[in-house]
Every structure is written in C-alpha cells, then in structure tokens.
Amino acid sequence: MPASGFRSPRIAHVVTGVDVVSRARTALADGAEIIEVASEDTASVQRELDCIVPAIEALVDAGFAAPIAIASRRALVVDQAIEAGATLVCPLEGEEGAEIAEIIALHGASRLAAI
C-alpha cells in the first residue's frame, strides 16, 4: 500500500455476453470491488448499446452490491448505461470526451480514472 494509504480498487473487467452475471459473481468472489462493463462489439453505436444496456440491467437485476462502471468512448452509450444502472464511468479516449463529461455531471455519476 502506498504511503498515503490509498489503494486502487480491484476492478472486474466484464465483457458483455451470455454469462455476464456469472462472470461478475466469480470476479467478486475473487476480490473485485467494481464491475466494469465493456462491449466486444463496438462496430456501431446501436450494436454497442444492444450489448451494454442489457448486461448492466442483468447485473442490477441480480442485486450486486458492487458499483457498476461503464467503459465506452461514446456519449450515447455512457448516457444509456447510466440510465440502466451504472454509477461509474471509465471514459475511453475519443472525440466525445467533453460530451461524456457533461453526461457524467448531469446524472451525478462518478468518473473512474484509468488504473
């Protein structure tokens, strides 16, 4: 642990898919403290939304106590992920950074710095 006493949280990077809930459970059992959701398919905004939003909804419905983070470079995806239940945002580098910052502030979400 650094002298300041700060310790980076353990993050479970969960890529969307069929077993998102069971993969998150396993990661949390292994000591993860945050569930970060990302999409395998980022070919289009709609396809990314079609992966991210149901995954976050499934995690919320499963009742996880750990915070859920969204990792995306697209403002619309970040907005919809927060609406679905994500409370943390790990914005990936991209053209929509300023818009993502506004969305984070609008929803009262928190920005998760790259670790």
TrEMBL record:
GO MF assignments: dihydropteroate synthase activity
Superkingdom of origin organism: Bacteria
Gene3D superfamilies per UniProt: Dihydropteroate synthase-like (3.20.20.20)
Signal peptide start-end: none
Domain Pterin-binding: 1-115
InterPro entries reported for this sequence: Dihydropteroate_synth-like_sf (IPR011005), Pterin-binding_dom (IPR000489)
Protein name: Dihydropteroate synthase
UniProt entry keywords in alphabetical sequence: Transferase
EC class (word): transferase
PROSITE patterns: PTERIN_BINDING (PS50972)
EC numbers: 2.5.1.15
